[in-house]
Design brief:
By secondary structure, the chain is mainly alpha-helical. It contains 16 helices and two strands. It has one domain: Ammonium transporter fold (Orthogonal Bundle), CATH 1.10.3430.
C-alpha cells in the first residue's frame, strides 16, 4: 500500500506526544511523593524511558508484532534488531513510524509501575523489574491484543474479538494489576497509615497532569494510525471523558470530604483519560461523557481500597489505572456503536445484546489474572535474588540521598534537621516491631 504523507505526519507527531507523557508522568509522580523521594521517582521514569527503548529495538517489537506462533500468544524473532523493517509499510505509514509509536506505549506503561513502589526500592531492583516485566508481561499482552492478521494473531484481538482501541488491557489494566502485585511483594512503607505522606509539590502534580492530558491526544487519536474521521472522534472523546471524570471526582470529594482538592481534579482527569483509552474509537461523545462520569466517581472510591485491604500502592496505580481501565473496557460493552466505527461493535445499550460485553469481561479478566500472576512471580524472584528494598535507615532519611547522593531541593539541610524527628521516631518503632516479630 502507498505511504500517506498526512497519516505518517500524524503518527510521528502522536509518537512524540506519547513520548512526552513519560516526563509528564515523572512530574506528576514526583510531586506526589515526599520531598526526600522526588528525584528517585523521576529517575525511575527516565530509566524506563531509556531501557524499554533498547528492549523494544532488540526484541520487544518482534515478539509483540512478529508473526504469531500459532497459539495466539506470542510473535517470533523475524524483526529482531528491527531487521526487515526499513523501507517496509504498515497500512499507510512506514513500519518504523509504527515501531516508534508502539515503543512509546511500552515505555509509559512500564513507568506507571513506579508509582506503586515509591519511596522504598533500590534502583538495581527497578532495573530488573523493567527488563523482566517488559519481556514477560507487556510484550505478550501487546501481541494478544493488537496483533491483527486475518485470524492468525493474538487471541484477545483476533480470536476472541474483544475491542481495545488504544490500550485498556495492554496499558491500563496491565499497569494497575501489575502494580498491585509489586506493592504486595515489596511491602508497605515505614510509617504507612501513621505518618503523613502527603504530596510535597501540588503545582508540580498539576503541571504533570496537564502534560499527560496533552500527550493523551497522541495516545488515543494516534491509535487510529491515520489522519481522518476516526482520529478526530478519538480526540474529542478523549477531551470529553477526561473533563467529565475530573469534575466527577471533585464532586465526590465535595460530598464525601467537604472540599474539592487540586490533587483530586488532577487524579480525576487521569482516571478519565485512562477509561477512554480502550473505548475512544468505538463510542460517540455522549458515550464518552457517561464513561467519564462513571470513571471519576468509581476511581475516587477505588483509591481508598488500599486502606481497607492493607496494601500500600503508594500513588494509587491500581485505583486510577487498573480500575479506570476496567471502566473503559466494560463501557465498550455497554455504549459502543458501529455508527462510530464499523470495525467495532454494538454494546448492550446500542442494541447489541450481551455478546460484546461478555467478550470485554473475558479479555479484562484474563488480563488481570495473567499480569498479576506473572508480575508477582517476577517480583518474588527479584526479591529473593537481589533484594528490593533500601535499608530502613535509608528509607527514613531519604531514598534520594541513599540511591543518588542528591536532593531535589537545597532549601534546607535534608540530612539533619528536616527529617530528624520523624525519622528517628519512625526508625525506632520499626526496629521495635522487628524485635517483636523475631521473638
Amino acid at each position: 500500500m502507498e505511504i500517506s504523507a498526512g497519516d505518517t505526519a500524524w503518527v510521528l507527531t502522536s509518537a512524540a506526544l506519547v513520548m512526552l507523557m513519560t516526563p509528564g508522568l515523572a512530574m506528576f509522580y514526583g510531586g506526589m511523593v515526599r520531598v526526600k523521594s522526588v528525584l528517585n521517582m523521576m529517575m525511575m521514569c527516565f530509566l524506563a524511558l531509556g531501557l524499554v527503548s533498547i528492549i523494544w529495538v532488540l526484541y520487544g517489537y518482534s515478539l509483540a508484532f512478529g508473526t504469531d506462533s500459532g497459539a495466539g500468544l506470542i510473535g517470533n524473532f523475524e524483526f529482531i534488531g528491527l531487521q526487515d523493517t526499513v523501507g517496509e509499510v504498515e497500512g499507510t505509514i512506514p513500519t518504523l513510524a509504527f515501531v516508534m509509536f508502539q515503543m512509546t506505549f511500552a515505555i509509559i506503561t512500564c513507568a506507571l509501575l513506579a508509582g506503586a513502589v515509591a519511596d522504598r526500592i533500590r534502583i538495581i531492583a527497578w532495573i530488573a523489574v523493567i527488563v523482566l516485566w517488559t519481556t514477560f508481561v507487556y510484550v505478550p499482552l501487546a501481541h494478544w491484543t493488537w496483533k491483527f492478521d486475518d485470524g492468525a494473531g493474538g487471541w484477545i484481538g483476533d480470536r476472541l474479538g474483544a475491542l481495545d482501541f488504544a490500550g485498556g488491557t495492554v496499558v491500563e489494566i496491565n499497569s494497575g494489576f501489575s502494580a498491585l502485585a509489586l506493592a504486595i511483594v515489596v511491602g508497605r512503607r515505614i510509617g504507612w497509615r501513621r505518618d503523613p505522606m502527603r504530596p510535597h509539590n501540588l503545582p508540580l502534580v498539576l503541571l504533570g497532569a496537564g502534560m499527560l492530558w496533552f500527550g493523551w491526544f497522541g495516545f488515543n487519536a494516534g491509535s487510529a494510525l491515520a489522519a481522518g474521521e476516526l482520529a478526530a472522534t478519538a480526540m474529542i472523546n478523549t477531551q470529553v471523558c477526561t473533563a467529565a471524570a475530573a469534575l466527577s471526582w471533585v464532586l465526590v470529594e465535595k460530598f464525601r470530604d467537604g472540599k474539592p482538592t487540586t490533587l483530586g481534579i488532577a487524579s480525576g482527569a487521569i482516571s478519565g483519560a485512562v477509561a477512554i483509552t480502550p473505548s475512544c474509537g468505538y463510542v460517540n461523545p455522549m458515550g464518552a461523557l457517561l464513561i467519564g462520569l462513571a470513571a471519576g466517581a468509581i476511581c475516587a472510591w477505588a483509591v481508598g481500597l488500599k486502606y481497607r485491604l492493607g496494601y500500600d500502592d503508594s500513588l494509587d496505580v491500581l485505583g486510577v489505572h487498573g480500575i479506570g481501565g476496567l471502566v473503559g473496557m466494560i463501557g465498550i460493552g455497554l455504549v459502543a456503536t458501529t455508527a462510530v466505527n464499523e470495525a467495532g461493535g454494538d454494546g448492550l445499550f446500542s442494541g447489541g445484546g450481551f455478546d460484546l460485553l461478555g467478550k470485554q469481561l473475558v479479555a479484562s479478566g484474563a488480563t488481570m489474572i495473567y499480569v498479576f500472576g506473572v508480575t508477582w512471580l517476577i517480583a518474588v524472584a527479584i526479591d529473593k535474588v537481589i533484594g528490593f528494598r533500601v535499608t530502613p535507615e535509608a528509607e527514613i532519611s531519604g531514598i534520594d540521598l541513599d540511591q543518588h547522593a542528591e536532593t531535589g531541593y537545597e532549601l534546607t539541610d535534608t540530612t539533619s534537621g528536616a527529617f530528624a524527628g520523624v525519622g528517628q521516631h519512625g526508625l525506632s518503632e520499626y526496629r521495635q516491631k522487628e524485635q517483636r516479630e523475631d521473638s
